[in-house]
């Protein structure tokens, strides 16, 4: 909600409500209803810079009765003529016998009379069918007109209720609009748009949350903002309307709950295949879990999430969900969700040591892209299963409290697809991969480009810098696929493979630069197959403890002549 302190109290301002921001003036609800209905009508085409509109011919228009009958008779005669001609051709074009006037007998006249009566009866049947069809058509047109009138009146009434200053009436408006969406298939998306627009209204959370906003425009770092101390906490102002914030929170929660109920497989009337636009909304402790987003398009772009945001148990199926420019002042959870043939993009910022959780989730196909330029928390894929598709984390910057910052894929299974951690700076925290199983697919840390030679200028372009992060690959099992560090600078970080079990696949350090820190393959490593490679990597100051690699062929990194690195490799 937007709050004012009465700066224009002396001006001549008409009474307004929260609904004004949606374009529906309180004293003209019917005009807004007509606008939304016209907007949802695909037969209306807007002409730029002109006040007139062109409309197609009315599909309900009925042609004159005589023309209708003549058209059907002509069609019947044409079909009969074509049929007789085809039969004549099939019977080898027999000659037609001529009958003189004197040679007509009573039997021939009787047969001709029967044919004439049959033709007359057929014409009468055609006329009767045309009349019955027109009557049915007119009844359908009248029925549709009455239905449209009823739907329009219900839409107008629900809009008026949503614009009321009383929370109880607004709640009734939410249910009225949802009921209309169930009954009115042609206008369902319009009703959903109105409910989403209500959620998009400016709103201040009632909880004791630290406020954040992007003051420098899109892409800038979120900054804390001071709360509005000039407005009493019990009453918020929008124009001349007053709202109790706790009551308004109940209305907003009801909108979300109604939408969730229609996105469940067991829903009597589902809203699958619809679009939900929450762009710029403010949410507090959002609960959007245990639903199925089937063929849906959902936008949480530029939203601010306070408290814990729950998307657990969601079935993402052939849908598109976007969090571009979002701020997560808390955590967001996708635990035990299923991603299939969908595209989910989380392009935002975590603040206040928030977490993004994918614990126990399953990735079958599609894309999940996470770009959080500043992570003051953690991203967890604990016990997740990757069977296909691509999961990518781009340009991450781990910073903040080392004790609460990190990434984890502990006890996860990679059976297919690609998991990529591409670009960024890892300055603190821990990367846990304990108990990871890799049988197919790839886990890539660093560049996602095909590895190539050093550029002509002799300078390596590094996409990822590990300057203070601990990578724990303890008890990892590799049966196939690969774990790849590509174009990575290891400067003060530790990469450890304690109790590694490797029967196939690859561990690749391609084009890396080991400045400081430690790379450990201790003696408790068990390698029965596969390859470990440090191709085209440079060892400048790091400690490489490769005791566990004495039984396998290893392509070692090049050592700088001026480096003070320490190597331990059993021959």
Question: Would you write up a description of this structure?
Answer:
The strands form four sheets. The chain has a 29-stranded parallel beta sheet that branches. A ten-stranded parallel beta sheet has the order 7-11-15-18-21-24-27-31-34-37, with no helix packed on it. Strands 1-2 form a two-stranded antiparallel ribbon. The chain has a domain at 1-48 and 58-96 and 105-261. Helix 3 runs antiparallel to helix 4 (167-183). It contains six helices and 43 strands. Helix content is 25%, strand content 27%. It is elongated, with a radius of gyration of 36 Å. The model is unreliable at 1-40, 42-56, 229-241, 449-455, 457-461 and 562-571 (pLDDT under 50). It has 571 residues and is α/β, with parallel strands linked by helices. Residues 210-231, 549-571 are annotated as: Disordered. Keywords: Membrane, Transmembrane, Transmembrane helix. Residues 560-571 have a biased composition (Polar residues). The chain crosses the membrane at residues 69-91, 112-133. This is Pentapeptide repeat-containing protein.
Taken as a percent bin, the fraction of beta residues is: 25-35%
Largest sheet: 29 strands, parallel
Mean pLDDT: 76
| Rg, Å, rounded | 36 Å
Short description:
By secondary structure, this protein is an alpha/beta fold. Helices cover 25% and strands 27% of the residues.
């Amino acid at each position: 909600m937007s709050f004012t302190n009465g700066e224009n109290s002396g001006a001549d301002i008409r009474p307004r409500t929260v609904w004004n921001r949606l374009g529906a003036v309180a004293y003209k609800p019917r005009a807004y209803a007509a606008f939304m209905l016209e907007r949802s009508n695909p037969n209306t085409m807007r002409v730029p810079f002109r006040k007139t509109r062109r409309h197609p011919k009315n599909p309900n228009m009925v042609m004159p009765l005589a023309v209708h009958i003549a058209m059907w008779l002509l069609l019947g005669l044409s079909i009969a003529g074509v049929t007789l001609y085809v039969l004549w051709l099939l019977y080898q074009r027999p000659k037609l016998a001529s009958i003189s006037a004197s040679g007509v007998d009573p039997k021939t006249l009787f047969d001709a009379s029967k044919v004439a009566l049959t033709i007359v009866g057929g014409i009468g049947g055609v006329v009767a069918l045309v009349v019955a069809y027109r009557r049915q058509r007119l009844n359908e047109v009248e029925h549709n007109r009455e239905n449209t009138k009823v739907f329009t009146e219900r839409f107008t009434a629900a809009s008026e209720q949503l614009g009321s200053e009383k929370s109880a009436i607004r709640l009734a408006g939410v249910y009225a609009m949802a009921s209309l969406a169930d009954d009115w298939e042609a206008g369902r998306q319009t009703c959903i748009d109105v409910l989403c627009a209500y959620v998009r209204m400016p709103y201040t959370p009632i909880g004791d949350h630290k406020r954040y906003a992007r003051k420098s425009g899109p892409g800038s770092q979120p900054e804390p903002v001071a709360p509005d101390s000039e407005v009493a906490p019990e009453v918020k102002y929008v124009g001349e309307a007053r709202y109790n914030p706790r009551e308004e929170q109940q209305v907003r929660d009801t909108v979300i709950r109604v939408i969730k109920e229609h996105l469940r497989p067991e829903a009597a009337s589902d809203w699958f295949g619809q679009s939900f636009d929450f762009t710029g909304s403010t949410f507090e402790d959002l609960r959007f879990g245990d639903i199925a987003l089937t063929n849906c398009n959902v936008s949480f772009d530029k939203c601010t999430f306070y408290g814990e945001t729950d998307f657990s148990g969601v079935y993402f199926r052939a849908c598109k969900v976007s969090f571009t420019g979002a701020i997560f002042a808390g955590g967001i959870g996708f635990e035990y969700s299923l991603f299939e043939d969908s595209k989910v993009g989380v392009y935002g910022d975590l603040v206040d040591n928030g977490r993004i959780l994918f614990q126990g989730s399953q990735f079958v196909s599609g894309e999940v892209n996470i770009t959080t330029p500043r992570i003051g928390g953690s991203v967890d894929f604990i016990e997740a299963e990757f069977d296909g598709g691509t999961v990518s984390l781009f340009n991450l910057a781990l910073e903040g409290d080392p004790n609460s910052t990190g990434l984890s894929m502990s006890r996860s299974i990679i059976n297919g697809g690609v998991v990529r951690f591409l670009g960024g700076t890892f300055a603190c925290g821990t990367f846990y991969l304990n108990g990871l199983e890799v049988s197919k697919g790839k886990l890539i840390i660093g560049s996602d480009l095909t590895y190539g030679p050093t550029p002509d200028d002799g300078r390596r372009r590094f996409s990822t810098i590990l300057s203070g992060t601990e990578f724990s690959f303890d008890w990892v099992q590799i049966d196939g696929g690969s774990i790849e560090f590509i174009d990575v600078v290891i400067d003060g970080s530790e990469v450890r493979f304690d109790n590694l079990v490797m029967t196939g696949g690859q561990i690749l350090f391609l084009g890396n630069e080991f400045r400081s820190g430690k790379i450990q393959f201790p003696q408790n490593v068990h390698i029965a197959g596969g390859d470990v490679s440090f191709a085209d990597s440079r060892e400048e100051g790091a400690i490489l403890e490769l005791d566990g690699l004495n039984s396998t062929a290893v392509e070692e990194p090049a050592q700088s002549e001026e480096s003070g690195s320490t190597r331990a490799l059993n021959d």
